[in-house]
Amino acid sequence: MSESAAQTILLSDYTPFGWRIEKVELTFTLSPKATRVTSRLRFVPNPDAPKQVFFLHGEQLSLIRAAIDGQTVSPEITDTGLTCAVPDGPFTWESEVEIAPAENTALEGLYMSNGMYCTQCEAEGFRKITYYPDRPDVMAPFSVRVDSDLPVLLSNGNPAANGAGWAEWHDPWPKPAYLFALVAGDLVAKTGAFTTASGKKVTLNIWVRPGDQDKCDYALDALERSMKWDEDVYGREYDLDVFNIVAVDDFNMGAMENKGLNIFNSKYVLASPETATDDDFARIEAIIAHEYFHNWTGNRITCRDWFQLCLKEGLTVFRDQQFSGDMRSHPVKRIEDVLMLRARQFREDNGPLAHPVRPESYVEINNFYTATVYEKGAEVIGMLKRLVGDDGYARALDLYFQRHDGDAATIEDWLKVFEDATGRDLSQFKRWYAQPGTPRLSFTDNFNNGRYEINFKQENQNRKSFPTKQPQVIPIALGLLNPNGDEVLPTTVLEMTEATQSFAFDGLAARPIPSILRGFSAPVILDHDASADQRAFLLAHDTDPFNRWEAGRALSKDVLVRMVLRGESPDPAYLEGLAEVLRDNALDPAYRALVLRLPSEDDIAQALADQGHVPDPLAIYRAAQTLRHAIAAHLKDRLELLYADLLCPGPYSPEATDAGRRSLRLTALGLLSRLDGGARAAAHYAAADNMTDQQGALTALLAIGAGDAQVAAFYDQWQDDRLVMDKWFMLQAGLTPPDRAVRTVTALTQHPDFDWKNPNRFRSVIGAFSGNAAGFHDPSGAGYDLVADWLMKMDAVNPQTAARMSTAFETWRRYDADRQGQICEALDRIRARPGLSRDMGEMVGRMRNG
Ligand code: BES
Ligand code: ZN
After folding, report:
1. Is 43 within 8 Å of 157 (Cβ atoms)?
2. Among 120, 380, 536, 773, which is most buried by a count of CB atoms within 10 Å?
């Protein structure tokens, strides 16, 4: 569909559907090119809805027959659905359609992956399976029958009956169509069991392809821990007899929370020490938890419409972050989450794709599963919790589950439970859901007669396309330190509601050093030109682990910016600060590794743009290389000691303690490789007995432009393992130095194993390359052309995956006129593709015009 023909959907246009559905009965007769789907739906008029024409969504379906109360009818069919005359009262609708899952390359609806049938219905995929009111506020219990010779036949809910070549499933919990799922294949299960707090026995199955069953232990363990945690922390129990998870190789997203039948990208299920890194294990744990937690926040309580997406996603991300913090380390998790938020959400909020946490319009909803909805959506909940306190939050959540169980709810409903449970007025807070853009917070302070005063100012810059922004409620967690390093004011939450606001603290003996926005208490940019000495002081003394890390981060950003702009050499205060943190063996190794990690080249480009400069990606790359060399040279002895000391005793364990040791050890290895030409990394590679060490060593080598032999050896060792081969592609595309990045990536796209229709493989090459800033922004424009060509090719087969990756271009306005011209040309070329998808049309249009 062309972009101009595509319709814009508005939040303000919401109208309830004219009918309720009491019962859904579906039968699937599976066949790759001719699957038959029959549906029987019991409709009753919805007394709360205005009178309307009977419309069912349906796309790419061949209608075989349709009947109402047993009488054949001839509905009027369009590209998007059908309309039909219907009786005034209740009636039974029946239809039979034919679809071709083997030809479904978009991986939305019913499709095939390695001979297995599977579905992906969120957000609007069910309409590619049968005619239905495919909107989240229409909820119904489903009964499903699957006919197929394949040995394992699954759908939502509880198993009802089965025999040779068929199975029936019944899901008693009313659900919207986007939570429907069906799987059929030659699968084996890793099985577990869980007894809920009220004594219900639940069978847990993780279904995978034969041969993969020994890679499910960690996912199963994470599932059991998630179930227990949701009972302990939120009082939420599981509500069916079985919980099934299926791993599929071809999947657009990470995973999907279909009721009782979660479907996962195999990358987020399968893990063994030999094939998965520590980060992979941590992500598996987080995503298993996330999808499980949706059973309450998403499924039992769903969204009224897709504008309310953050209601389930922001909340569920917030919950999975809490869970990971509890399982591992809260400070480390918080730093990782903020790194991600800044890299993805601040970047989005600062460019042409900025939108509110709750958008007010969209063309293609798949384009709104964004960092803003997810990550800023989670931050907004974190702020709410800080403002109402832990008890208030717990009361509000209890009320939410009690009041809205079974509902398709809104952000208004969500805020109302907080108001009712705590007595607070949240009308101003609601601006966080409505106003796009990242507020900037600045301050001045003074000290007089024992009184310290701090004056804050907030600004949310007005991008041309948005109305003037109103001040937002900003919880500012503040601590004050004495010049000797003692804390004189423990963390206190200031509630800023005005554009400018002052706070005072009395009875202080000396002018304190403020530690502002502790724990990153609000998703804002703190504009603060502290001196290097002040930052070094906080890096050494702040009692808040987040702000201690943040001080080091700000220092390294300043250092890099000065190196890029003025060719200065790195500040000794910074190098000494790092040395001190490294020496402090009381600090968690994972935390120390984060302190050593430099800001990304994209962060530096944004920092330069914020200061009114035009970033040169190559200059940034060179400065980062120089700084890494300087850090390595300055800290050599310490790094060697750490490298020697941090070996993990005993067999590999993916748990946080060992993972943290490996992380710091590999960070040390990466730095030391800058001094020894990679000798140590080559030895480390040769000795590695787990993927974390193997990948870490290869990363260290590639980052210094070495590693050819290891790249070849890695290929020989892992060519038959799809998930490990993704890493092989990703590391090369992401880390090859700029002078040959385009050439190397072009060659990778010609490699026989570049199975580009697989979204994981495509992202491993094209996605990783667009994150290789200096390579992607090659002055010739060849990087842009390469990405644009592949996005066009992918758009023709899988629009959702292509459109999501087009955000590689969202920062184009930062760059010089030549690069801007090249990027616009690439975007215009994409836009002109005959048959351009609605997904890509919307993305390119917004980027070009925003
Ligand atoms: N509901 C989503 C999956 C989804 C997103 C389906 C967009 C269709 C379109 C799921 O709960 C989810 O959010 N998955 C994330 C991972 C999660 C840990 C944030 C994903 O797939 O990236
Ligand atoms: Zn989710």
Report:
1. no
2. 120
Candidates 25, 59, 291, 842; catalytic one: 291
Between the CA of residue 695 and those of 561, 648, 661, 756, 768, what are the distances in Å? Answer: 30, 17, 15, 22, 15
Judge residue 76's burial from the number of C-beta atoms within 10 Å of its C-beta, 0-12 exposed, 13-18 middle, 19 or more buried.
exposed
Which residue matches tokens 């090459």? 765
Query: From CA 100, how far away is CA 32, in angstroms rounded?
Result: 6
pLDDT band at 467 (very low <50, low <70, confident <90, very high): low
Ligand 2 center–CA 361 separation, angstroms = 21
Instruction: Give the tens place of pLDDT for each residue, 626-664.
Output: 999 999 999 999 999 999 999 998 999 999 999 999 999
Is residue 257 in contact with ligand 1, taking CB distance under 6 Å?
A: yes
Residue where the block lists tokens 């390093």: 485
Asked whether the beta carbons of 451 and 421 are under 8 A apart, the reply is: no
Q: Give burial (CB, 10 Å; 0-12/13-18/19+) of 232.
A: exposed
- Among protein residues, the one with the nearest Cα to ligand 1's atom 19 is 317
Q: Is 417 exposed, middle or buried (0-12, 13-18, 19+ CB in 10 A)?
A: buried
CA–CA distance from 562 to each of 570, 599, 724, 729, 774 (Å)?
A: 8, 14, 39, 34, 19
Q: What is the pLDDT of residue 413?
A: 99
Structure tokens at 625: 């290389």
DSSP 738: T
The confidence band for 1, taking pLDDT boundaries of 50, 70 and 90, is very low
Ligand 2 centre distance from Cα of residue 687 (Å): 39
Give CA–CA dist 411/604, Å, rounded: 35
Question: Across the strands, what pairs with 776?
Answer: none
Tell me, what's the pLDDT at 475? Answer: 98
- Does the CB atom of residue 254 touch ligand 1 within 6 A? yes
Q: How far apart are the first and last CA of the chain?
A: 22
Ligand 1 atom at minimal distance to the Cα of residue 313: 13
H helices of 708-781, in order, are: 708-718, 722-735, 741-749, 759-762, 768-770, 773-776
Q: How many Cβ atoms from other residues are within 10 Å of residue 268's Cβ?
A: 24
Quick check: 760 and 270 in contact, CB under 8 A?
A: no
Q: Is the pLDDT of residue 573 over 90?
A: no
Answer yes or no: is the C-beta of 287 below 6 A from any ligand 1 atom: yes
Nearest to 842 by CA among 832, 834, 831: 831
Ligand 1: which residue has its CA nearest to atom 17? 287
Residue 372 Cα to ligand 1 midpoint, Å, equals 14
Sheet order of strands, 158-163 included: 71-72, 62-68, 91-99, 35-45, 19-29, 140-147, 166-175, 158-163
- Mutation choice for ligand 1 from 253, 263, 310, CB with most ligand atoms inside 8 A: 253
Residues facing residue 492 across a β-bridge: 478
| Residue 664: count of CB within 10 angstroms of its CB | 25
- The answer to whether residue 262 scores a pLDDT higher than 80 is yes
Tell me the per-residue pLDDT of 496-549, one tens digit each, with 9 for 90 and over: 999 999 999 999 999 999 999 999 999 999 998 888 889 999 999 999 999 999
Strand partners, 171: 142
Q: How far is the CA of 293 from the centre of ligand 2 (A)?
A: 9
Give the span between the Cα atoms of 359 and 238, in whole angstroms. Answer: 31
CB-count exposure of residue 282 (10 Å: 0-12, 13-18, 19+): buried
Please report, to the nearest 10 degrees, the dihedral formed by the alpha carbons of residues 573, 576, 580, 582 taken in order. 120
**Of 343, 424, 340, 347, which is closest to residue 383 (Cα–Cα)?**
424
Cα 22 from Cα 653, distance rounded (Å): 49
Peptide bond into 394 cis (omega under 30): no
For the question of residue 291 being annotated catalytic, the response is yes
Any atom of ligand 1 within 6 Å of the Cβ of 278:
no
Q: Is 289 in the pocket of ligand 1 (CB under 6 A)?
A: no
Amino acid occupying residue 608: L
